[in-house]
Predict the structure.
Amino acid sequence: MYPGFPAPEVVPFRSHVQKGRPYGPNTSFAMTRVNAVTNIGTYLDSPYHRHEKGPDFTGVPLEHLVNLEGVVVDARRRPGRRLPVALFPRRQLRGHAVLILTGWSERWDTPRYTEPGPFVGKDAAAALLEAEPALVGIDCMNIDDTEDPERPAHTLLLGAGILVCEHLTHLERLAGKAFRFFAAPPAWEGVASFPVRAFAIVE
C-alpha cells in the first residue's frame, strides 16, 4: 500500500457454511466483499487518475493493455535517483510496453521500499512522450519523484493517454528478451487506478 493509505478490508459476503436458500440444500457459494483504495500492489493508472477529463478504464482500448510488444529499459546502473534521458533513446517504441528496471523491487515488503526511489523526471517523460508507447511501467513505488508534488511524469504520460503501471517486479527476467506484456484491469466506470496481475509471455 502507498504510505498513509488504509489497509484493504476483505470479508466474506457469503460462505460455504450458508447452505440452502436460495440454492439447493447441499449447495453453497463463497462470495467476497472488498473495500479498498485501488492503488495497492501492482496497479495500473488510467488517464483519469491524474486528469479530471481523462478517460477511466472504460475508455482505454483493450489493445493498450494486452499483448503489447515489450521492452525493458535497464536503469540499475543509474547515477542517482533521476533516470537519465539517455536511457530512453528515440527508437521505435510506438505502441510498446516500456518497462523500467531499477532493481528497487528487491526492497519490497521492507521499510526501505517506501523511501524516495528512482523516478522518471520531466525531461525523460517528454522523451517517452515522443516515443509514443502504449504503457510505461516501473518496479518501484512511483514513476514520479515522491518529493515533487507536481508529478510531471504522471501529468505528461497520462495526459497523452500513455498508461502507467507501478510496483512491478521480476523485470530482470525479461531484460534483453522479446516478450508480450499484459496488464488488464476491469473496465469499471469511474475507477482511476486498479490492481492488475501483470505478466509477460517470452517469445
User: Anything to note?
Assistant: Residues 1-37 form one domain. The chain has two helices and ten strands. The longest strand covers residues 68-74. Residues 113 and 157 are 24 Å apart (CA to CA).
